[in-house]
Design brief:
Layout lengths: L2 H16 L15 E13 L12 E14 L4 E12 L8 E12 L2 E9 L30 H4 L1 E12 L5 E10 L11 E18 L5 E17 L7 E18 L2 E16 L7 E15 L4 E11 L12 E13 L2 E12 L19 E12 L1
Antiparallel strand pairs: 1-2, 1-16, 2-3, 3-4, 4-5, 5-6, 6-7, 7-8, 8-9, 9-10, 10-11, 11-12, 12-13, 13-14, 14-15, 15-16
Length: 383
Amino acid sequence: MRLGLVAACALVSLTSAAVPARAEGDEDDGSALQVHAFVSQGAAVTTDNNYLTSTERGSFELTEAGINFSKALNDRLRVGIQLFTRDLGPIGNYTARVDWAFLDYRWKDWLGLRAGRVKLPFGLYNDSSDIDAAHPVVLLPQSIYPATNREALLAQTGAELYGFKPLGTRGALEYRLFAGTIHVDLDETTMTQIDRLEIPYVVGGRVMWETPVEGLRLGGSAIAARLESDLRLPTEVAPITLALGIRMWIASLEYVTGPITFATEYSRWTSRLETNDPRFPRRHTTDTRAYWLAAYRFSPLVQAAGYYSIYYPDLDNREGRESRLHDAAATLRFDLNPHWLLKIEGHALRGTATLNPALNDNMAPGGLANRWWLLVAKTTVYF
């Protein structure tokens, strides 16, 4: 076992022991230091194609660990931070990082300000994608919540305005508006040397309407960002300058009643690429992403869930296996006790869009198996 995971597990254990439990009957005024932590271990195998990691021969490179602290300094001011490490195939390799860190001042329920490294409110679940216990599935629908993009999409460094406004008989409105930048680590393993990679700005927001129908909420999210990079090809001396404009939006619906959860989201991501090299023409593409998810809790111990997810990387070209990825998933979740859960999940997939050639003997997605299966299991301990 690698040192990073050992250190993460030790940190969770020591922190759990160091935080004293409140005596029965003690009042919690909300000002106490809040400490939470988790360790997850997964395993995955595919019938064909390596997905996320080397799954054709089976892989245990699905590990996550994190610990977070938050404290209310007064009735309006709160601070928080989360440390996180993971190993997902070639990603992470147990490198510890600050996942998020914020200073939160709530002036009124309808107006607050967060600053720091703040989670991106994109869709229903992006800002809770780091909380395995909050979701019935192992892998959130990858068309909209790709695990490989977690570092870039989880949080931005900047500021956010937020608020919650009751609307009487019309329900309530929750909003979050943000602006900042995103730091992306350079991948030193790529054959193309990246001299510079920056995201000068990211702006966006989310508005959610809690309708008068109990448990039903509707909303929309949007993000605009710009990426700038200097690439140096192995055979080139001068770098190629790239500028990528990105626009992303999601329409969301979620309905929760008793043991039943239903959610669906539809999204389009548009990118516009410009370069200083005439060999690489300007390119403008729009992709399509959507899923439908349903879950039912049979008892405090058992919950079943399933979803169907679709992804087309180019709205104008849907021909060929490399131009789509359809994913039908079914999950059983077992809450073994209040701090330990187990999930087992099967996927029937059609298409090869998003598959990484580097994990598949440098074979282009068009040459990989069109129909394939994925089985993944994950267990999480948390407090």
